Amino acid sequence: GAGVSQSPSNKVTEKGKDVELRCDPISGHTALYWYRQSLGQGLEFLIYFQGNSAPDKSGLPSDRFSAERTGGSVSTLTIQRTQQEDSAVYLCASSLAAYNSPLHFGNGTRLTVT
Amino acid sequence: DQQVKQNSPSLSVQEGRISILNCDYTNSMFDYFLWYKKYPAEGPTFLISISSIKDKNEDGRFTVFLNKSAKHLSLHIVPSQPGDSAVYFCAAIIQGAQKLVFGQGTRLTINP
Fold first, then answer.
1. Which of B27, B45, B100, B107 to mutate to test the interface with A (most CBs of A within 10 A)?
2. How far apart are CA B99 and CA A103, in angstroms?
3. How many C-beta atoms surround the C-beta of residue A73 within 10 A?
4. CB of A99 within 8 Å of any CB in chain B?
5. Neighbours of A46 (CB within 10 A)
6. Shortest Cα distance from A91 to chain B (angstroms)?
7. Contact (Cβ atoms closer than 8 angstroms) between residue B73 and residue B14
8. Nearest Cα to A74, choosing from A9, A8, A26, A13?
9. Residue B38 in contact with residue B44, Cβ under 8 Å?
10. Sequential pLDDT tens for chain B (112 residues)
């Protein structure tokens, strides 16, 4: 079966522009996560969706970041007025509902803000 | 506040020898631990996990050890193979929290 799909794979944008990153999770996975990896850093949690529950947004670094998950499936991460420090690889992952179910990651979107 | 720490950014091991990757954590509430492996331009893939009720879990060439009193876990790969060259992340979670906390990663290079 298909894995987690992210698009675009690469995105170069000018400082101040808005960007949208898309994630298609594995079918049947009710949990969806966004992480980012900045250069030389570990994986930083951004946001978590589980079914119809309110998302855990505790990792979003500023109010310029938002995410939604439509119909319990596809998710979009939006960054408004991008800054150079937003440059990173943005990774989406999905899993079954159990807390000890491994996350299945997509290949990420490499965002470069110039 | 880095709750999960991998203090070695890189490790180089000769093919056929044992690779030992280390991870320390500070939150005693963590009760499940995982290791992920990441190749360039790909997302991390799950490798092996361990529950806090165990101190060892083995899967083929990979063994994870957990020392709760020291808040330390390690991943052993034996024998190491060139395809094991990748970045390895350890991660931890608290039951019910649903938020996996990752370390910074260790880049493992297996030399022929």
1. B100
2. 11
3. 15
4. yes
5. 21
6. 7
7. no
8. A26
9. yes
10. 679 999 999 999 999 999 999 999 999 999 999 999 999 989 999 999 999 999 999 999 999 999 999 999 999 999 999 999 999 999 999 887 778 999 999 999 999 9
Tokens of A17: 């522009």
**Per the CB < 8 Å rule, is B99 touching A45?**
yes
Residue with tokens 């370390």: B103
Query: Which residues 6+ apart lie within 8 Å of A63 measured at CB?
Result: none
**Which pairs from A25-28 meet CB under 8 Å and 24+ separation?**
A25/A73, A25/A74, A25/A75, A25/A92, A25/A94, A26/A1, A26/A2, A26/A94, A26/A104, A27/A1, A27/A2, A27/A73, A28/A96
Question: What would the 3-class secondary structure string for A49-75 be?
Answer: EECCCCCECCCCCCCCEEEEEHHHCCE
Measured between alpha carbons, how far is B64 from B29 in angstroms, rounded to an integer?
Answer: 19
Distance from CA of A5 to the nearest CA of B (A): 10
Joined together, the tokens standing for residue A85 give 């420090």
In which order are the strands placed within the sheet that holds B56-59? B4-5, B19-25, B72-77, B62-67, B56-59
Q: What are B's interface residues with A at a Cβ cutoff of 8 A?
A: 4, 6, 32, 34, 36, 41-46, 49, 51, 89, 91, 93, 95-105
Q: CB B43 to CB A108 under 8 A?
A: yes
Q: From the centroid of its chain, how far is CA A99?
A: 19
Q: Which amino acid is at B70?
A: A
